[in-house]
Amino acid sequence: MKKIAASVVLLTAAALALAGCADAPQTNDSFLACMISDQGGFDDKSFNQSGHEGLLKAESELGVTTKASESQNATDFAPNLEAMQAQNCNLTITVGYLLKEATEAQALVTPDAHFAIIDDNQIVLPNVKPLVFKTSDASFLAGYLAAAYSTTGTVATFGGIAIPSVTIFMDGFVDGVARYNEDNGADVKVLGWDKDKQDGVFTGNFEDQSKGQNTTKNFIDQGADVIMPVAGPVGNGAAAAAKEAGNVAIIWVDADGYETAPQYKDLFLTSVIKEIGASVFDTVKEAQAGNFSSDPYIGTLANGGVGIAPLHDFESKVPQEVQDKIEELKADIASGALKVTSPSDPQ
Length: 347
Hints:
The longest helix is centred in the middle third of the chain and has 21 residues, at 164-184. The chain has helices at residues 2-20, 47-62, 77-86, 100-109, 135-149, 164-184, 209-221, 234-245, 257-260, 276-288, 320-335, and strands spanning 32-36, 65-69, 91-95, 114-118, 128-133, 154-159, 189-191, 193-194, 199-200, 226-230, 249-254, 268-274, 297-299, 306-308. Helix 7 (209-221) crosses helix 8. The chain is globular and about 60 Å long. Helices cover 43% and strands 18% of the residues.
């Protein structure tokens, strides 16, 4: 009987040991979630900030440990990733398309670590999860609104760098203006982007606010009274130019500018929002629970991953019939009845 009892104990111990080897959820204090910004930094009032807020929410609500590293320029990407892996991050989230090459290289040399990258879906590896957004849908609504609000018949958009996560906004914006013109027999012009040629105005970076200010002044001189900068912190320069000019509205991107850049809140007609923070939080939660997947997350109007912000101070300045039309178009896009397309749409 003693031998049988001993055998039972040994079998039980072995079963427990094997169970410990399964992909069980890690305890909160043992899970390390890390994040690396692009050169815009975590105070960019835009996508880096939104991503960081999602990480901080995971820290407070899930109890995971977090580390974050800001990149000052592109040469920081690879060293920052290496430094994070030296700290044994369980999940490392890189913020932005520009980190694609560095993220892919690090993921290849550390296959047991998990990664997620915002605004890129070109890395096809089992340990990398893309977090991407069909912002053309929401930008379409912003373009329609811009055209309806404009009194000069001229609106504008420009980007920081000509990359898919930027031009996708500009494509949707142009199409929204075109739809307004079609619906109303109007001829509102868009400066700064030719969708057919995929060519337009870019400042060349996401940091130099003076370039955003000068670009916006140029658009204002050409008659634009609604301008959408897709350029991270460079957009602050655009807002400064609009404030100086007066009677010029700004459409912000990525986050609700009314909340993230309150010094310019009276300028924001709306914002094209990507729920980056929510996607980061959900990805951390899944990975911490042992459910990491490399399947892409694609934010759309239908799933709430993208949208436009409330009109805030402009609500009384936009006719109700325009607001109703925006809601109608939003429902049509979400249902698939209206197709908005961009060469940069995530697949």
